[in-house]
Design a protein that fits this description.
Blueprint: H1 2-22, E1 37-39, E2 50-59, E3 62-70, E4 76-83, E5 93-94, E6 97-98, H2 103-107, E7 109-116, E8 119-128, E9 133-141, E10 147-149, E11 163-173, E12 176-183, E13 186-192, E14 199-201, E15 213-223, E16 226-235, E17 242-248, E18 255-258, E19 266-274, E20 277-284, E21 287-293, E22 305-307, E23 317-324, E24 329-336, E25 339-346, E26 353-355, E27 368-374, E28 377-383, E29 388-394
Parallel strand pairs: 6-10
Antiparallel strand pairs: 1-29, 2-3, 3-4, 4-5, 7-8, 8-9, 9-10, 11-12, 12-13, 13-14, 15-16, 16-17, 17-18, 19-20, 20-21, 21-22, 23-24, 24-25, 25-26, 27-28, 28-29
Signal peptide: 1-23
Keywords: Signal
Length: 398
């Protein structure tokens, strides 16, 4: 009886192994497929040209899209569009823009919008000068709806020999407005009570570089307790970055908060407030990533939840984030080796899935994709280097 028993046991083992080999990993979830509605933005007054779209925001009772116009001759000028339609589907008009005869303001393209008390402020730039560096200008809103440029009175405020980058603007924190960016000395912020003039805060510990860390700041958000700036730092002797945020109650004194990291190269590039707290978004190794923290940004940060694939051969990152509280989702725009992609996750920065876009935009320095959102309305801005598009969707609820 021993032989049959041994054969029976062997047969059972073979069946078990066969079952293990035939078990395939579960297929990825089906992409979310919004119903996209293509919109048309009017060309603002001035020479005819191609509309450029770069950022979108809901501020007060209106939607705004910032960008510019590029003429066949290669000239550019700033532009801002707005609508009071809650669904952002109709009623778009070009807002008046006063460039105050400032040389680079006249030629700027707006790339970042912020909101405070129902008024928007913006950052724009135009490359120029002997080295072709971006010549940055900021803009503020008058109560009559006109967007007004702040003329350059100090070349070193955003440019000069220590210039690196001027990234994103936010309003609503203590003191009014804050811009996150970088100078030769590391992470830097600029502040203003009313966006009509900004003051630089560079070489400010612990935002700035130290003997142990080389820091970068990318994005900022206002929170009830003050400000949060997100970015990363490269420790001395290493080539990879670690993810960080910095918090401040007054934009003068800062606290550096490390996010849970790994040996991979990681940077937190964008940040958003959600009903569940803060979510920082960026890259972690060869994937995109989300870190969740509490409402202050000072504590409670989770390890990275990874999604997607950055690919190799180019600088990858998260270009835009939209919080859709009514839909229970957030949507981010990323760029990697395979081009620009859209992803959706929960308001806690988890459960990520791909989102289909109405057009495909490849990688490259002349391309751009971003998103803006509020409630369950999502705006998608695309530019493939030849044609810009703007699309709206009532995003499917979770």
């Amino acid at each position: 009886m021993r032989a049959p028993a041994r054969f029976a046991a062997l047969a059972a083992l073979l069946l078990l192994l066969a079952g293990c080999e035939s078990a395939a990993p579960p297929p990825p979830p089906e992409p979310v497929r919004p119903q996209w509605n293509q919109l048309t933005l009017p060309v603002p007054p001035g020479p005819t040209g191609r509309v450029l779209v770069r950022d979108a925001i809901r501020c007060g009772q209106s939607w705004y899209v910032g960008g510019g116009v590029s003429t066949p001759a290669g000239d550019t000028r700033p532009a801002l569009w707005r609508t009071s339609d809650p669904a952002a589907a109709t009623g778009w008009t070009a807002a008046p823009v006063d460039t105050v005869n400032d040389y680079y303001a006249i030629r700027s393209v707006i790339y970042s919008l912020g909101c405070r008390d129902g008024l928007v402020a913006a950052i724009g730039a135009k490359s120029g000068g002997a080295h072709g560096n971006p010549r940055v200008r900021t803009f503020y809103s008058r109560t009559d709806g006109t967007l007004v440029a702040v003329p350059s009175r100090d070349f070193e405020l955003y440019g000069g020999g220590r210039q690196v980058s001027v990234n994103h603007i936010a309003g609503g924190g203590p003191g009014g407005w804050l811009i996150a960016g970088n100078r030769a000395g590391g992470a830097t912020v600029w502040t203003s009570p009313d966006a009509t003039a900004f003051t630089i805060h560079e070489d400010l510990a612990p935002l700035a570089n130290s003997p142990e860390l080389t820091t970068t700041a990318v994005d900022t958000v206002a929170v009830p307790s003050g400000w949060v700036v997100t970015g990363g730092a490269r420790p001395k002797g290493r080539i990879d970055r670690d993810p960080y945020v910095w918090t401040s109650a007054d934009a003068a004194a800062w606290t550096r908060v490390p996010l849970p990291g790994t040996p991979d190269d990681e940077q937190a590039q964008r940040i958003a407030r959600t009903p569940d707290g803060l979510v920082a978004l960026g890259v972690a190794g060869t994937a995109f990533a989300a870190w969740r923290g509490d409402a202050t940004g000072a504590a409670g940060w989770s390890g990275a939840t990874k999604f997607g694939d950055t690919g190799v051969g180019m600088v990858a990152g998260v270009d835009g984030v939209a919080v859709l509280a009514s839909a229970g989702r957030m949507v981010v725009a990323t760029v990697g080796a395979d081009g620009h992609r859209l992803w959706t996750g929960s308001l806690a920065g988890k459960d990520w899935n791909s989102v289909t876009a109405p057009v495909q935009v490849g990688p490259g320095g002349s391309t751009a994709v971003s998103v803006g959102g509020d409630g369950d309305t999502l705006l998608l801005l695309t530019d493939d280097g030849a044609t810009s598009g703007i699309w709206a969707s009532q995003f499917p609820r979770a």
